[in-house]
Structures are given as C-alpha cells and as structure tokens.
Amino acid sequence: MPRARKKKETATEPVEPKVLDSNLEDIVADRFSRYSRYIIQERALPDARDGLKPVQRRILWSMEEDGNTYNKPYRKSARTAGNVIGNYHPHGESSVYDAIVRLSQDWKSPIPLIDMQGNNGSIDDDPAAAMRYTEARLSRLAQYLLEDIDKDTVEWAPNYSDEKFEPTVLPARYPNLLINGITGIAAGYATNIPPHNFNEIIDAAIYRVDHPNCSIDELLELVSGPDFPTGGLIIGNEGWKHALRTGKGRVTVRSKAVIEEGKTINQIVITEIPYEVIKSAMVRKMDEIRLNAKVNGILDVRDESDRKGLRIVVDLKKEANAKAILNYFYKNTDLQTYYHYNVIAIVRKTPKLLSLADALDAFLVHREEVIINRSKFDLKRKKDRLHIVEGLQKAVSVLDELIALIRKANGKADSKAKIMDRFGFSEPQAEAIVTMQLYRLSNTDVIALQKEADTLRKEIEKLEGIIKTPSKRKKLMIKELKEVSEQFPMPRRTQIVEDAEEIVVDDRDMIVDEQVMAVVSHQGYVKRVSMRSFASSSNGTAGLKEGDSFVFNAPVSTLDTLLVFTNKGRFGQIPVYQMEEKKWKDLGTHYSSLLKPEMGEQITNVFVEKNPVSNVDLVLAASSGQIRRVHREDLPAKTKSRLVALMSLSEGDSLEHVLFSCHDSDQLVLISQSGYGFKMDVNEIPLSKGKGKGVRSINLQPEDKLQSLLVADQEFLVLENNEGAFKKIALSSIDTHKRGARGIRLYKAVKSHPLEVVDARTASAKETLSFANGTLPALDVSTLPKMDPSATWSSTGMLETPVEFESLDLRLESGDRIKPEDGLDQLTLFEQTPGVSQ
To answer: Which of 25, 367, 540, 586 ranks highest by number of CB atoms within 10 Å?
Structure first.
C-alpha cells in the first residue's frame, strides 16, 4: 500500500479576520428585504401579463422546449418535473410536481394548462398519484400562451446556473390572469384572484382595445362576475362588482341545490358546490349535523357523485321543513362560502392591486409589445428573404456566365468572392447561390421568384404598417383575440342570482313537530323522551337520582320552549328540541350544559309556551315573602345559553314561587309554612320592569317562610303537611286581605305536636293530583272530606313520607284555566310549578 504523501510545510503569514461591523437591525432588515423581494417577484405572486407564477411559467416553457405539446404523446410527469428542477427551478420536486398537478385539475382551473393522464387528485382532496405513474403534456390552450415565443417576442434571462436562458414572461394570446385566476401568499402580500369566463374576459379585452378610456361599469356589462369551474350560484351583484372596480371585495357563493318531494321522504339534491370547497369534508360536516341531532328530520346524507357529475343527496322525513334545513346547511357548512377578492399581481416588477381595467390594461400593453416584437422579427426575416430572392432573380439573368465563373473557382469561398466581385452580389446572396445545387438554379422559375418577391414586399409593407401604426396593431390584436374566443366557446358555469332571499335560520323551522315527554328535576337534570319510549316504560323507574324529584314532567311539543326560573332569581329559556333525547329510565343531562348556572343554583319553576305572549303578568315570590309582578313581554326575548336576573334577593333568600296571572281581577292565595294564609288581589302587587327586589306580600314570623303561592281560581285548596296528611278547604272560607297581612290559620295547631305545610294546590271537586316523584298513585280530591280551616288534618290518603305535588297543568284546551276569549290566542300550554321546600 503506497504511503500517503506528506504535505509540504510552508510558512504563511497570519490572515487578518474580516469582521463586518454593522447594526444587527440593519442586517436583518436588509436580508429580510432581499428575501421578501425574492418571494414576491420569484415565487408567490403572478405576473399581470401572463397570469403565471415563475414555477408555472418554467413548467410550461420546459414542456414546450422538450416538445411535450398537445399534439404529441404524453410523457412521464417525473421527466417533466426533473427537467424543470434541473434546468430552471432548483427547488423541491414535490413543489414542482404539485404545481404540475394543480395546472391540470379542471375543478380548480376552468382551462387547465396541462393535460394529465392518470390520477391527478380529486375534488375530495385526494392526492395525485406519484409522478412516476402519471403522464402529462401541454393542453391546447397552453399553446396559445406560448405562441410566437420563438420570435423574440419576450425578454429572456439566464437560468440559475447561467447555462440556459428562460423567458421572463410568456407571449400570452389571452388574459390568463383573470381567466384562470390564482392564489398565493408572499411576504407582506397575498393574492386571491377567482377564475372568470373565458369568452367574457376576451370580450372585455376587445372592448378595452376599442375604447381605451371606457369606464369599469361599461366593462361590467360584459363580465358577469367570477365563473367558477365547479359552478354554483353567486348571490347578489354588489360584491363582485365592487371587487372588479377596486380589486378587493367579497362574493357570496352558494351551492346549487333543489328540493325533490317523494311519496315517503323528501330529498335535498346538490349538484354544484362552491369553488375550492373540499367535497368530502363538506359531506362529512353535513353528516355530523345529522349524527349530533343538531337538526331534526335528517335521515341520511350521502355522496352519489360519479364520473357523470357531482351529486350529494340528503334524505329528509316527509314532515321535515326541507327549506329550513337547507338554509341551516348554508349557514353552518361550506354549502355556502365567501370568496374574498384580492387582485394583486406583479406590474413592472412591483406588486399592485388591480381593478378589472388595470388587469386588462397590463395584458393589452404586453400584448401590443409582443405584436411589435413579433412583427419586427418577421419583418427582418421577410427582408432577408426578399434580399435572397432578388439575388436569385439576378443570378437567373446571368446564369450561364455565373455557372462558368463558379466552375473556374477553387472551392466555395473562391466562388463567393468571384461572383460578389463580378456581379455585385451581397455576402448572403452569394452564400445562397453557391449553396444551391446548380440544377435547381437552372430550373428556377423566374415567374415564381417574381411572385414570391411581390408577396414578400406586400408582407413587409404590412409588417412595417403594424410596427408604425397603433390602429393597425389594435386591429390585429382584436382579430387574434376573436380567433381564440371563437375557437373555444365556453358557456358560463356559475349563475348570478340577483334577488336571492337572505338566509335566515330559525331553529324552530327545522324541528319536526312531535309530542315528547319533557322532564326537569330539582337537581337540574333535563331530558326529552319519545312518547314510544315513555309508553313502553310507563311502569318503570323514572330515571331520577336518589332523593331527586320532578320539577316538571309533562307531554310537550318539540317546538315548545321551557321557561326556567331558579332559586337565585334568574330566568332562562330551553327549547325542547335542544334537550338531549333519552330513554325514560335514563338520568338525563344536567342543565348546566344549556344555561350555565352558578354554583348551587337550582331550578324551582318551569313553564312551557309555544310562542311568547304579551297580555299575561308574571308573579314572582321569594321564600321571604318578597313579591313582584312583571309583564311577560318585559322578560328578555333572547336568553340563549345564559340565565338573566329578574329578582334581587337578600342573602339566604331564594325565588320559590312563579305563576302567571291573566287578569287584574285575579286573586292569589298565599300560604306560609306555619299554616297561615289569605287571599289577595293580584293588582295589590305593583307592576315593575327589569331587575327588582319587590314588595312584602305576607307578614311572616322569624324562621317562617312563604310556602305556597297559588291562583284562587278553583273551588278547593288542598294542603299537605310534613307527615304526609292532607286537608281540603273551601277557598270561599279564606278571607281576602291587603298585601302584608298574616291571614288566618288554616288548620288547628297542637303545641305538643307542631306541624308544617309542605305543599298546597287549588283543585276542583273531581280533580286528581299527581305527585312529583312519579311513582305514587294520584290523589283523588273527591275522596278528601271538606273541612273548616279550624279543623285538624284528615287521615284520608295519608302518605308514609310527604311528597310534593306535581306541576300544575294550565292547558288551553281544558277550558277551566285559561280560555281563548281571555286573549291568549298564542298560548298553547303553560306548565306551572309552585315553590317547594328544598
């Protein structure tokens, strides 16, 4: 093994280190400025002239250079990506391939610039196949962007390695920036340009050529807003018109959907969706709404899209409000989106915000330069050819002498020199003559040469006219634009809906009206139970925790709303359809998920109403005897997900009693825990608004409290004591007093055996009273003996343990509580729960 050669040691002088003495802020600012300039000009923003980012332009040019055109066989995408990276765009292969795929996707570009064979992704955001599997070539319309690029029509710049040159812009026969649109994010800039209709934009460009000083409103007569490849509907005109006037704006884009009615079900059928929406994600979101029961009446959501087109179907119950559900989808999914215009593009190496007129002008100025450069290129070639033809004509006239001179010459160079010297031919003419085979020269048709010369002179005159005369350039520009437009007619895919209804989502409209059992317990558990589940479990346990009981338990409609009052004097609303559906034996969900109560806040009263009423008074009373009266219409209209304060309470006090009064002539029955009670006119309580403490209703002794507050609208008062005994008293035997009285004792007190009232109800003679725990048999009022207030308690129906009565039921159809003639036409059902001991 040969020895490693020892390096020769040489004496070197120490190198002075180069230190850059500069402020760090200045360095960072300078470097970021350079980086920003690079990102803006070389990566993220399109050129206003051809509408392409640098990577897109390099892809198209590389494919053109490689002969990978629309009329040639497909080539592997990996080859194209490799050529682009190796020659022009030294960045990651995935970014280049992603750009190739993006240019081929017809759901993102109305006129794809690349024709790809194989899996190029999908509207469901599926990834494209690997580049080794797919094949691609330029599309036919891409050729019109590259047309005449070989005629010195655009500027060229060295590639990154200085080995090749690349175009800084493409010639572009049509305004690609507005037609295909583009998105990009740079440093400090972002662009978001939607696609527009191919023929409309070209028509606007032609009009701009003819009328360079026209207003944008004139152009808007030709351009009807964006035209998305996925179709859909644009709602209203103001958004897109403002965007095209200023370069910025917002457009509402809505899916195209129809409601189809069937015999057993109805369907919402969606055939077009907004631009850049991922279909699979949108369908998944719609199905989540169904699974989470946010909207009732949805049976199924499925994607039936195939190669024939997009189709999403939503099956609905026959009785469901299809229009309301569709509106809900518009509001809560990508079935309706907003597209934000931000038309920023590079103009003269600077990013600018462009209106429709600005964007067209940038293209037209560029197009005029292309026509001039192309005409100059063609003019030079025509003149060069005419010069040769004139030389050939002269050569034919002296053909014999010319041939003799060439035969005597020593080689090509000598021949050229002699004929140039002898006949006065120029070097190009002499070159053409000596390189031509003699038999062709002898057989050259003089007439053909003359015709060619005449044609060339006319073409030269025409080209000189184009170069010198702006009007001729404009005429040519219009002609070329019309040719492209006529060759590719493209009807609009996106419709403009001028007078679309505003989407107003009322949750009630989406609820299927059905009867359910609504349950609210003292401990705050709420649920709704289908009537089928309730019927099958009617003899089973009611799904309550030990020691818990019903505050409310009654059949209601899913369209009804529970009016909830708490011990802390607050009020909230729970739509029945928002209550989680459970089985009768299930516990339910705590109401904290619906109304966000404070610690220790419990529901004490619940009412049900279908629609808010205005001519009813609300009477609220605390256990301390404080009472206030407010109009129903003065309650907060919207209390979604929160509780609002109605009554100010002292420490230790709680709101226990809430009832509704329909007339100023109503009388109330007030009963204390110690057994005192009296009747009082409701108008004794002043009407008030907002949050208030109220006034004193009953004279209570220390440690006593207001136990019951009832409307005196029945024949009897039924009392229950803390030992489970009952007593029935005629209401007529109870005196009426002013507010603040103590009243009479309603039962005979025994000092050695003191008793307390735990609950009370007013009832008719034949009424039955249910109990709040849902397990005891109802109490038949007719079985209780009628007793005088001074009497003791009855032993009839006595319970082992006292249980509060179930909620009072105030129903319009019963006719014995609130009658239609009372002016409560909107009221379908009130449920009232008087206060109970906790």
So the answer is: 367
Placement of tokens 């655009």 in the chain: 154
pLDDT in tens, 16-45: 677 767 777 777 766 766 666 666 666 789
Look at domain 384-468 and name its CATH class: mainly alpha
Strands (E), 175-310: 182-185, 190-193, 233-235, 248-254, 256-261, 265-272, 298-303
Q: Residue 693 contacts by C-beta under 8 Å, 6 or more apart in sequence?
A: 626, 628, 647, 648, 649
Return the structure tokens found at 518: 């609504």
Euclidean distance between CA atoms 409 and 415, whole angstroms: 5
Q: In this structure, what is the dihedral angle of CA atoms 469, 472, 477, 483, given to the nearest 10 degrees?
A: -160
464: exposed, middle or buried (Cβ count in 10 Å: 0-12, 13-18, 19+): middle
Are 672 and 709 spatial neighbours (Cβ–Cβ below 8 Å)?
no
The token pair that represents 559 in the structure block: 């369209």
pLDDT tens digit sequence for 427-447: 999 988 888 876 666 666 788
Which CATH architecture describes the domain 513-832? Answer: 6 Propeller (2.120)
* C-beta of residue 578 within 8 angstroms of C-beta of residue 588: no
Look up tokens 């980086």; give the residue.
35
Q: Which two tokens stand for residue 332?
A: 């809560």
Q: Quick one: CATH architecture of 52-171?
A: Alpha-Beta Complex (3.90)
Backbone angles phi, psi at 731, to 5 degrees: -60, -25
**pLDDT over 60 (residue 838):** no
What's the one-letter identity of residue 201?
I
Percentage of the chain modeled with pLDDT above 90? 56
C-alpha closest to that of 286 among 298, 273, 271, 274: 298
Q: What is the pLDDT of residues 197-227, one digit of tens each?
A: 999 999 999 999 999 999 999 999 999 999 9
Residue 814: the pLDDT is: 28
Please compute the mean of the pLDDT values over residues 76-95 and round it to a whole number.
93
| Cα distance between residue 764 and residue 768, in whole Å | 9
Helices (H), 311-355: 322-332
> H or E stretch including 246?
helix 238-246
Is residue 617 within 8 A of residue 630, CB to CB? The reply is: yes
Give the model's confidence band at 811: pLDDT under 50 very low, under 70 low, under 90 confident, else very high.
Answer: very low
Cβ(243)–Cβ(341) below 8 Å:
yes
Question: Which whole-number Å values give the CA distances from 633 to 609, 674, 682, 834, in the listed order?
Answer: 13, 35, 18, 21
pLDDT band at 807 (very low <50, low <70, confident <90, very high): low
- For the chain, the domains span 52-171, 253-337, 384-468, 513-832
Nearest to 825 by CA among 614, 509, 574, 560: 614
Q: Predicted confidence band at 551 (pLDDT cuts at 50, 70, 90)?
A: confident
The string of DSSP letters for 302-316 reads: EE--BTTB--EEEEE
- The beta strand positions in 94-210, using DSSP E, are 114-117, 135-138, 156-158, 165-167, 182-185, 190-193
Distance between CA atoms of residues 549 and 541, nearest Å: 12
Strands 768-769 vs 779-780: parallel, antiparallel or unpaired: antiparallel
Residues serving a catalytic function are 133
DSSP conformation letters of 465-509: HHHH-HHHHHHHHHHHHHHHHHHS-----SEEETTPPP----GGG
Single out the residue of 814, 810, 778 nearest to residue 797, CA to CA: 778
Q: What is the topology classification, in CATH, of domain 253-337?
A: Gyrase A; domain 2 (3.30.1360)
pLDDT computed for residue 773 by the predictor: 65
Helices 93-104, 77-87: inter-axial angle, 10-degree rounding: 120
**Do 52-171 and 384-468 agree at the fold level?**
no
Q: What span, in angstroms and rounded, lies between the C-alpha atoms of 288 and 298?
A: 11
